[in-house]
Amino acid sequence: MPDQSTTEVHEPAITSSEEGATRLTRRKLLGTAGATGLVLGAAGATAGYAAAPAQATPLSSIGAGQAPFHVKHQPGITQGLQARGHLVAFDLAAGAGRKEAAALLRRWSETARLLMAGEAAPNDDTDIARDAGPSSLTITFGFGNSFFARTGLEKQRPVALDPLPDFSSDHLDKTRSNGDLWVQIGADDALVAFHALRAIQKDAGSAAKVRWQMNGFNRTPGATAHPMTARNLMGQMDGTRNPKPTESDFDERIFVPAKSTKDPAWMANGSYAVVRRIRMLLDDWEKLSLTAQEQVIGRRKADGAPLTGGGETTAMDLEKTDANGDLVVPLNAHARITRPDQNGGAAMLRRPFSFHDGIDPDGTPDAGLLFVCWQADPLRGFVTVQRKLDRGDALSKYIRHESSGLFAVPGGAAAGGYVGQALLEG
User: Fold this and answer.
1) Exposed end of the chain (fewer CB within 10 Å): N or C?
2) The model's pTM
3) Which helix (H) or strand (E) holds 198?
4) Residue 61 banded pLDDT, cuts 50, 70, 90
5) What is the set of active-site residues?
6) Domain named Dyp-type peroxidase C-terminal: which ranges (predicted)?
């Protein structure tokens, strides 16, 4: 088991005469950690949910993790789950159009590039994250359906951005759904994540206003003795069958191809994000026995293995029966219904955050899942699976979808460019 003690990073002393002339960047403050050989680098930052590392991430290396900004696919999609996250949607201000949107995406992209490298924000940095490393910070940008009419780009709106259908478990708050622009922020340090959120909000200036904002969390990398699939607030392992970048058809299922026959050219190497705030009715769930909970999910709670036996990654035997002739995995078990081979191969890359927004007056926790999933085609991915769940998922009794959004997330920015440049300047 790796040493999980925290490496202490000391800030070099600065005299009063030097302070005005020399500003230490967050990257410079990481020098001690880098010298000890604990820097994760871009490869380490991808560890976790989508691609588990060979060994546990030492806690002392958390601040040193760094994800690159100028990449083929925007950061924050294939990276592992991050300990802290913020999801925020903006609406363009009255009178703001394509020109203002382009200027905003330029500002946001430059801010993201600097912050993800562990540098200060370019404008009026708050110093909230001054003492920290990049902490695997990722910032991801997307466009909602309404963005295209606001900017006169209706002809460039992808068909895939057509509104999602209604589902029986929907209790949607329209004020916390959709939006012209969407930003996903993730990091393995809460202050680094909040610092990015504050910088993005300030950069919006008079061009856009916050429509809604949500905060989430996951287990911190290195908190377990070895890499594990994350658990949600129901205590269940969540994401066992997540597609992996090592799979031959991963890109085909998750990303828009460079020469797509269905999507506009500006979406090359991009993806579509479905965002849902799913409240978990934890008081009802926790009244169930362990056996009943496992029947609802179709997997053992302790290790995520299917009820038909084996380990977490063992294939589920959908035909196996017990001594009474009953199916071991019930027909309405969540894990059975969501299997890709039960949905025409439909797959999506789940990358959620848990949330807890306090206690209601009646003592009910306002908690659950900030569900974020990625796919090349939301109709074939999320919609296909959710329609199947809508027809008889045992878990639906214990959850409630309270907000929803669908966003087109273009490919990564080229060096010297900004996210969405091909759309806004094409």
Assistant:
1) N
2) 0.86
3) helix 190-204
4) confident
5) 238
6) 229-413
